Predict the structure.
Amino acid sequence: MKPFPIALSILLALTLISGSAKGTDIINLIPNPGAELGYDIPMEWVSTGSALWTTGGHSGLHCFGLEDSGSWTSDPILINPERFYNFSFWVKGNWTSGNIFIHLRQWSEANGTGWIDQWNFLLNSEFTEWTFVKEDNIHFASNAQSMTVAFCNDDASVGHFYMDDLHLSDVLETPWYQEMFTELLFGSGSWIGLTLIVVLLLLIGFINKYGGMVSLPIAVLLFIEYTVQGLGWHGIIVFLVGIVAILSSSYQLKSKK
């Protein structure tokens, strides 16, 4: 086979795998987990008090912030009380007084009403650098239909705190090969996977005059998937590479006239 169909086949396979990962333990159930989507306020989140939508996050362009008292709360997330969940997030800040929490609040109704209980993550220490926090195998109440994530503090609190790249995933049995590919695309090996995708996009765009027309739509799909997974910089890079690929195709077509 020639390089173009080989590269195209591999890239299409990676794109399909990224979409087929839904339902595995790598898929993030939290809406807009890195605060990347929105205008004036992150989509699918509400805020109170001195809540900040700020730059300088752990990844991407934005993160959730609190300056003294305030809160961020996600839209309701549907859950299955018969399953276990993994929850993680990144935090950074300097807190001089009061307490700051991340709550996982359980609700008996799908629309986020009917209070049941909550999981509490107390963050009353100093995090001078971005720090990863994770809790595995969370089991919600048997009558829980939805949950919300709340990032909040005491009314008398003083300090600055930031949260980014939240992740809530359904723990399911998945085939080893699917776990391998999802880790390559969105997990610990995501930068290796991104490098492979970038090389394939450029290869398709530069070795075939029509390659950019294929590369750009695939880049857009991967940009959306990366953004949903909270990997903002990955999405931006792959989108820009798609633009470069289609510009290369445009130049090749123009030069052959």
About this structure: Residues 232-255 form the longest helix (24 residues).
